[in-house]
Amino acid sequence: MQDLINTIADKVGLDPALAEKAVGMIIAFLQKNGPEGAVSAMMENLPGAAELAAANAPAEGGGGLLGGLMGMMGGGGSVMALGQQLMSEGVSMGQIGDLSKEVFAYAKDKVGEEKMGEIVASIPGLSQFV
Question: What is the secondary structure of 63-105 as a DSSP string?
Answer without folding.
Answer: -HHHHHHHHHTT-TTSHHHHHHHHHHHT--HHHHHHHHHHHHH
